[in-house]
């Protein structure tokens, strides 16, 4: 029987199917345990199932692993995965790790790990795909690559060097912000902080916006002051305000001083409002245009890839100035309405002036009732002078109304449809 070999980095995101072809989830990692004289043994996979919950799938439940898919017996325990002592996650912890060649020829970094199925049907770590130090001074040059067996290298944990997170960040490049946040929070704390340091400011800001506030604060406090301020600059103003609102007053002011002045000013304005009011929930950067602007101009702004979908559902027409706080709000033009008119049509002629804005002091419950009553995804928020100061979207309200621990998915799962035909308790040692 020939040995089956699969490289772990290529498994990231691969679909997991039951025997009938129904999709159960996708692979997020491979779990191994070290052995004294043999390569690490694979004991299971970390699989993300619907609801962004990462669960453990014993390797004994896997009938086939290929580059594009994993086939299981159909039995998955939906209890959230928790890493146990002695277990190592390949993508989260091994990729990017420095190893030394036993023959004394130097060191290299692990870029990929092949797992191999032996004649007994067990999966072990086989070849390592390694990158040696670069030999050219060019900043664009990369070191040569080579394959090696586990027995030919050794790890060195005594040097005090932090393991490189660059390769791990590359495997996360296609993850949506919510999935990236969920994946980061499942990492060991020291590894999470290494990856946070490696992520770009914009990418880390997107992930932080999807995390519980306690985790946001923990990560932000581990970053240097300058980096923390840059992260806050890249966050939506309402999310940055919510995060800063969890910090001591002195620390809050320190970070605001380091932020870009315009970004800091937006955040300061939001911090004036109660967190459970429309002002505390809104973003201060909706799309604002004049009545003379055309449908074509509005659609061009809506097409911006960085714009949140809920904010792209409508534009707000005001008198000058056109940055919040604006001149008097004239009305709203919804995206769907724009599609019914020619590109040259002026927004002032198609305003929906029947929708009342919400005052900045309105409660979260009042905002939720209006969104639900009129089937909307966003609402304009105005001050006493009827100036537009922001827009509150349905996701902002949901974040407030849902239980604080909704992101962890550790609440009551009694309403969750079972993914298993029968309870699938983990065998001793997860074997």
From TrEMBL:
Keywords: CBS domain. Residues 282-349, 351-411 form the CBS domain. InterPro entries: CBS_dom, CBS_dom_sf, Mg_transptr_MgtE_intracell_dom, MgtE_N_sf, MgtE_transporter, PRC-brl_dom, SH3_actinomycetes. The keyword DNA-binding does not apply. It holds the Pfam family MgtE_N. Residues 409-431 are annotated as: Disordered. The keyword Nuclease does not apply. Residues 416-431 have a biased composition (Low complexity). This is CBS domain-containing protein.
């Amino acid at each position: 029987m020939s040995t089956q070999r699969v490289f772990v980095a290529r498994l990231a995101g691969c679909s997991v199917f039951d025997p009938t072809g129904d999709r159960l989830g996708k692979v997020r990692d491979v779990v191994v345990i070290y052995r004294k004289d043999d390569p690490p043994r694979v004991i299971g996979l970390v699989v993300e199932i619907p609801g962004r919950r990462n669960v453990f799938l014993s390797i004994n439940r896997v009938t086939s692993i290929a580059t594009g898919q994993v086939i299981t017996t159909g039995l998955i325990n939906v209890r959230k995965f928790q890493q146990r002592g002695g277990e190592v996650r390949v993508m989260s912890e091994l990729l990017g790790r420095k190893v030394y060649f036993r023959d004394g020829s130097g060191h290299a970094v692990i870029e990929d790990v092949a797992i191999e199925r032996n004649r007994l049907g067990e999966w072990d770590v086989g070849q390592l795909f390694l990158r040696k130090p670069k030999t050219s001074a060019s900043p664009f040059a990369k070191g040569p690559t080579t394959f090696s067996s586990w027995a030919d290298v050794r790890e060195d944990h005594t040097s005090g060097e932090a393991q490189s997170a660059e390769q791990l960040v590359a495997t996360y490049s296609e993850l949506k912000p919510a999935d990236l946040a969920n994946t980061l929070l499942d990492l060991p704390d020291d590894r999470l902080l290494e990856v946070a340091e490696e992520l770009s400011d914009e990418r880390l800001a997107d992930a932080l916006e999807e995390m519980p506030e306690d985790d946001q604060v923990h990560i932000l406090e581990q970053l240097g002051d300058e980096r923390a301020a840059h992260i806050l600059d890249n966050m939506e103003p309402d999310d940055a305000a919510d995060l800063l609102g969890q910090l001591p007053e002195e620390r809050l002011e320190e970070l605001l001083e380091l932020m870009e002045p315009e970004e800091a000013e937006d955040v300061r304005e939001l911090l004036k409002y109660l967190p459970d009011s429309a002002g505390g929930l809104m973003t201060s950067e909706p799309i604002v245009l004049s009545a003379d602007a055309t449908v074509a101009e509005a659609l061009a702004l809506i097409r911006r890839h960085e714009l949140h979908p809920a904010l792209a559902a409508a534009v707000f027409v005001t008198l000058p100035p056109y940055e919040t706080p604006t001149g008097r709000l004239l009305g709203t033009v919804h995206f769907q309405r724009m599609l019914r008119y020619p590109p040259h049509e002026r927004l002032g002629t198609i305003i929906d002036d029947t929708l009342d804005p919400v005052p900045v002091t309105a409660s979260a419950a009042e905002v939720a009732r209006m969104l639900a009553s009129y089937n909307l995804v966003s609402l304009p928020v105005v001050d006493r002078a009827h100036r537009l100061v922001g827009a509150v979207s349905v996701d902002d309200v949901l974040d407030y109304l849902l239980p604080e621990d909704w992101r962890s998915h550790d609440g009551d799962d009694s309403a969750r449809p079972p993914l298993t035909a029968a309870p699938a308790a983990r065998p001793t040692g997860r074997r």
